[in-house]
């Protein structure tokens, strides 16, 4: 089986901060993920990729080497590179959704990375000046069956954070620890976007620098509407798809999507 044409892969162009190698890796990775290059199919040859994208052999080999290291392709000397069958069941949308709902889920682990005092970022203070200038910074990495899929950064207002200990946070996520202390989370405002992985997130999530990540910012408030935590969750796109069940409504004006959505992923605290 042969991949049809390199024209179907997409384009590579000069982009500040994003190398040709990473662009090629992303194009090939996407084609493997969506089945455009199915299991058993040959990837375009080095020469084809060099000619199609006007890039060097070293650039091509680095991208191919990364995919081989991730065990998503197999390279056969004198024959070429072929897509491997990679079981997806363990990282299905439904299985990850269940992990994100329940922090005690089987096979799930949360590892504390850093706890320290830090200035509250300006964008959080703009969102709610009550947050204050100093916060407790808490970072952790979440994994499922020993595979990392989420890197989180939390800021907790200093007066509340004074009641938290590193020991507590090594056993519980911030909101669970706060709830145990009587600080009751009640509501949250959420924004979903996409970002490029910085060096810290790339290292803990096992992705390349500048890889695309799903990003969720969440400002959590207590029962008195006071801010108690700001969360930023970074998700590996290949392990945490964003899915929702939505309905189609019919009216005199025509068809429209029902705004009452039931999100499946992500729902992390």
What can you see in these coordinates?
There is one protein chain. This protein is an alpha+beta fold and 269 residues long. The chain has 2 domains: 78 residues, Winged helix-like DNA-binding domain superfamily/Winged helix DNA-binding domain (Arc Repressor Mutant, subunit A); 174 residues, 3-Layer(aba) Sandwich (Chorismate lyase). Helices cover 28% and strands 32% of the residues. The protein is built from 9 helices and 12 strands. The strands form 4 sheets. It has a 6-stranded antiparallel β-sheet. Strands 1-2 form a two-stranded antiparallel sheet. Strands 9-12 form a two-stranded antiparallel ribbon. Helix 1 crosses helix 3. The radius of gyration is 22 Å and the shape is globular. The C terminus is likely disordered.
* Count of distinct strands: 12
Average of the residue pLDDT scores: 83
Low-confidence stretches: 261-269
What do we call the CATH topology of the largest domain? Chorismate lyase
CATH superfamily membership of the largest domain = Chorismate lyase-like
H-E string: HHHEEHEHEEHHHEHEEEEEE
Q: Span from first to last CA?
A: 44 Å
Placed side by side, the strands forming the largest sheet appear as 3-4-5-8-7-6
Q: If classified by CATH, what would the architecture of the largest domain be? A: 3-Layer(aba) Sandwich
Rg over C-alpha atoms, rounded to the nearest angstrom: 22 Å
Shape by Cα distribution:
globular
Structural class: alpha+beta
CATH C-level class of the largest domain is: Alpha Beta
What's the structural domain tally?
2
Q: In what range is the share of β-strand residues?
A: 25-35%
Helix content: 25-40%
Task: Characterize the biggest β-sheet.
Answer: 6 strands, antiparallel
